[in-house]
């Protein structure tokens, strides 16, 4: 059963128009939708001012005003790509968020756009099945995969992939990385080393793409903070988005950390991966019927 969006919950929970109870209900619902306390409080306070200055009373009017407030808070950033240079996209994210799958989906999307050739780099040498998973994706899409043995230096894997791509004239390198956030110090050190190699060796477009699971709420925000502080995030992929009123953390990530969204994953199939669309996102989050 699909969960109710904010609009339906507003209709269910309060009937006081612009009363204090109405705004308290809105703030609670925004927090419940994973926008986080800071952003929810900001939006509620602003909405209260707008409602009083414009004399908004009905739930529909409040809903429209809320949607108009949310729209500019969510940043989007199309994938940067130069056809005449090497394009390196380094995928970041903790284990379990769908990082490797999102990488493979981006490879598929790039193919539909005529951008390539694409080579995959199995830079997660810590998780035992990571390289095998990436190689399977490579086989399915007929893509070359650069990998080394389990436990190898991930920086060396990336270096080899970049050198190989440059030698063979590939246009895109999609590089996986480890995501063992429970050992934060080692992860940060490893990512900083990889980042240095990427900056020195790529010679073209280089973007760091963070994958966040839409269903994990405040944990996703904390993950974004860690990776952004470690190496700087250029764009975000929102994975496992199912249009069921979740994914509100994207608003907080954009507003509080300034991170833009480039893509989102909306299903299991390779083609269920699209450039991020703010209007569709807001319709799913708010759920107006």
Order of helices and strands: HHHHEHEHEHEHEHEHEEH
Unreliable residue stretches = none
Strands ordered across the widest β-sheet: 3-2-4-1-5-6-7-8
- Domain module tally: 2
Radius of gyration: 21 Å
Cα separation of the termini: 16 Å
Main sheet, how many strands, which sense, barrel? Answer: 8 strands, mixed
- Helical segment count: 11
The amount of beta strand, in percent, is 5-15%
Instruction: Provide the CATH topology of the largest domain.
Output: Rossmann fold
The CATH class label of the largest domain is Alpha Beta
CATH architecture of the largest domain: 3-Layer(aba) Sandwich
Shape descriptor reads elongated
Q: Find the CATH superfamily of the largest domain.
A: P-loop containing nucleotide triphosphate hydrolases
- What is the residue-mean pLDDT, rounded to a whole number? 89
What structural class should be given to the helix and strand makeup? Answer: alpha/beta
Number of beta-strand segments: 8
The proportion of residues forming helix, as a percent range, comes to 40-55%
Task: Characterise this structure.
With 289 residues, the protein is of the alpha/beta class. It folds into two domains: 6-73, Four Helix Bundle (Hemerythrin (Met), subunit A) (Up-down Bundle), CATH 1.20.120; 87-286, P-loop containing nucleotide triphosphate hydrolases (Rossmann fold). Helix content is 49%, strand content 13%. The chain has eleven helices and eight strands. The chain has helices spanning 6-13, 20-32, 37-53, 59-70, 99-112, 130-141, 154-168, 184-201, 218-231, 249-257, 278-286, and strands spanning 87-92, 118-121, 144-146, 172-175, 205-213, 235-239, 261-265, 273-275. Strands 3-2-4-1-5-6-7-8 form an eight-stranded mixed sheet, sandwiched between helices. Helix 10 links the parallel strand 6 (235-239) and strand 7 (261-265). Helix 1 (6-13) runs antiparallel to helix 2 (20-32) and helix 8 (184-201) crosses helix 9 (218-231). The longest helix is centred in the middle third of the chain and has 18 residues, at 184-201. The mean pLDDT is 89.
């Amino acid at each position: 059963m699909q969960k109710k969006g904010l609009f339906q919950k507003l209709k269910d929970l309060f009937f006081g128009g612009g009363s204090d109870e109405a705004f308290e209900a809105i703030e609670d619902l925004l927090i419940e939708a994973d926008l986080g306390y800071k952003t929810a409080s900001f939006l509620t306070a602003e909405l209260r001012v707008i409602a009083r200055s414009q004399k908004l009373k009905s739930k529909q009017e409040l809903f429209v005003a809320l949607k108009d407030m949310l729209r500019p808070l969510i940043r989007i950033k199309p994938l940067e790509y130069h056809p005449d240079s090497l394009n390196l996209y380094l995928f970041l994210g903790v284990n379990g968020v769908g990082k490797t799958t999102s990488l493979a989906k981006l490879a598929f999307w790039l193919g539909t756009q005529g951008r390539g050739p694409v080579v995959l780099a199995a830079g997660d040498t810590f998780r035992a099945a990571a390289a095998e998973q990436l190689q399977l994706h490579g086989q399915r899409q007929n893509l070359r995969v650069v990998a080394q043995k389990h436990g190898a230096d991930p920086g060396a894997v990336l270096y080899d992939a970049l050198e190989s791509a440059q030698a063979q004239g590939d246009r895109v390198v999609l590089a996986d990385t480890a995501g063992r956030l429970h050992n934060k110090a080692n992860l940060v050190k490893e990512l900083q080393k990889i980042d240095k190699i990427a900056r020195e060796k790529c010679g073209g477009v280089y973007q760091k793409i963070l994958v966040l699971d839409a269903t994990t709420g405040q944990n996703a925000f904390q993950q974004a903070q860690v990776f952004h502080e470690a190496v700087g995030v250029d764009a975000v992929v929102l994975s496992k988005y199912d249009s069921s009123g979740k994914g509100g953390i994207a608003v907080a990530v954009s507003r509080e950390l300034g991170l833009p969204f480039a893509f989102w994953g909306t299903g299991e199939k390779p083609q269920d991966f699209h450039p991020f669309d703010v209007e569709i996102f807001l319709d799913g989050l708010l759920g107006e019927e």
